Amino acid sequence: MMKPARTKPPRRALAKKPSNNGQKDPVGVYCRVRPLSPSDQECCIEVINETTVQLHPPDGCKVNKNGEYKETQYSFKQVFGTHHTQKDLFDVVAKLLVEDLIRGKNGLLFTYGVTGSGKTYTMTGSPGQGGLLPRCLHMIFNSIRDLQAKRYVFKTDDKNGIEVQNMVEALLDRQKRDAQPQIVPKTPLSRQKPEPEFADMINIEDGCKVEDIDEDSVYSVFVSYIEIYNNYIYDLLEEVPIDPIKPKWNTPGKNAEFIPPQSKILREDQNHNMYVAGCTEVEVKTTEEAFDVFWKGQKRRRIANTQLNRESSRSHSVFMLKLAQAPLDADGENVLQEKEQITVSQLSLVDLAGSERTNRTKAEGSRLREAGNINQSLMTLRTCIEALRENQMCGTNKMVPYRDSKLTHLFKNYFDGEGKVRMIVCVNPKADDHEESLQVMRFAEMTQEVEVARPVDKPICGLTPGRRYRNQAFKEELTRRLEERGGPVIGESEEQTAIELLFQSFPPIPSCELLDANDNQTLPQLIEALEKRRRIRQMMSEEFTKSVTSFRSMLQDFNGVVAAKENIAQGKVTEKERTIISQKSEIERLEKKVKTLEYKIDILEKTTSIYEGEKRNLQQDLESQQQKLQRQLSDKRRLEARLQGMASENAMKWEKECERRVAAKQLEMQNKLWVKDEKLKQLKAIVTDSKSERPERPSREKDREPKVPVRSISPSPVSVCVTWNL
Ligand code: ADP
Ligand code: MG
Question: Where are the annotated segments for Disordered (predicted)?
Fold first, then answer.
């Protein structure tokens, strides 16, 4: 934001700024839908509810490329339809900005939309329908009413700062002003009849004001009015010296010699706020006076646009309201003569150029180029908003190209620093504007996502409150008592000094020039006049002594009253202090409780983390055990398979061995059998032979006779053996 443009010496500029704890608020975006003009048939925008509007394409282009009927909805902080009045809009959008201004905080309010969408109607208004600008002025002057400083007590310097002057300096400046023509009429406009053209616009029947205004301060409003066209800044309030022979640009006429306005440059002040160098700042005391200044600027703008053949909808106008405030001294009588106690806040009301693309206005040649440039500044505004949004949402640090246009450069501080930024997007529901309205809505939606730092509260000056009213009560009491005693009444006008009054009551001194030697009249007349003066002086001196005595006694009485009031006030303060102490102890108790609870939470969190750690370890153990088990199972399975393989191999081996051995045994047995057989045969032969020789043989021998083995012997070698054993 713009830091409150305090007029501080450089040493103080480094003083620690009160912090707002980094709090931010999004840019407040509001939407106003103007009524359809009688010449337009089709309405393409519908207010759905308090915060939403719906756009639908005009007949004939109701389907998009994909053949769909496309309606789009957009949401805002609030939507104002045709039934909403200028006051409704002011109450919601601008009131808070004026309250902030009076509390020393800055604000920026701008209207955005295509030409004819109602930007100027919203900002300035029309006869009988005062817009935001006159309403802001009305609320400011309604709030600072009789708390305003006398003209020239505050004085602007050429570095965007404001100084405070004492009564005498201010009086001298007022006299100087009276001696020369100015843009502001010498007689305050409140006592003049305002121009009929705008009288209806500022006739605002609204008693709204800031309630809890600091009454121990004095206030003063300064206005400036600039126009940005083709990336050049022009001061609409600049006084062009009038040549009595040749008519100048502020005198419209066909053959008038026209002096084109000089463009201004932007500078940065010591608080890094941007300002238009050398821009006229006019101190104004009433709504009428301020609006008159605005109206004059407006007229000049119109003349310049006609004379220079400009496209007026392509220029941005900025009306700046600066409020200077400074505390009264400890006596509540004069403004505290301390530069660093001055607070300056600013509210900028911006009526932007039409946001439509150039081809719409059918501009040609140099006008087209200029218009391109103007469009460029709105493009830069869009780029800046985009960059800000990206930086804030993605945490990036992309450079915001404020310097690319005068418009964005001038308002850099509002987006980069602190303050409130509000935007009203104006839309015309007619079919021709549909395409452009979509662009406006998209920009508005993006803007809503940008956040701006919340402004800090104005520091308190440290003097006891109620100074102005104590001083006023004292003056009233003094006047009353002086009246009671028939003494002089304290005059309201400071210019009518006591010394002047005093000199008026003395008889004039006659001429003391002696005409001739026999002149015996001059001297006695002189003596008589001087004698008279001496008597008056003596009388006055006596009167003065009397007055001093009565004043002294009155002062004592008054002091008594003040002391009594102070006692009461002291009692109240003590009571309040007691409440504060009890509240403080309550806060302390709660803080302690919070600490204990935080400690407990801490312990619980630690326990939880320990348990969680244990759980994690156990889970890990479990997992590793499971893996081990799995491994063992698969090992076992492998072993089983191997053992099975080995067993079957062994069985086969043994079977083969057995078969081999059986076969060998069979062969052996067969051989033996054969041998036996042979032997038997031989035996048989022997027996047969011997029988024929000896017919009988003992029976026992018979039993022992081996049986003749048959060729088909039992297959088992065992049975063979058994047979043999038998
Ligand atoms: P812009 O400044 O956006 O180009 P204007 O404010 O000049 O548009 O508005 C164009 C016309 O529409 C003016 O005649 C104005 O009075 C009228 N107008 C705009 N908004 C409204 C509204 N909300 N109610 C009534 N008339 C309106
Ligand atoms: Mg306009």
Answer: 1-27, 686-715
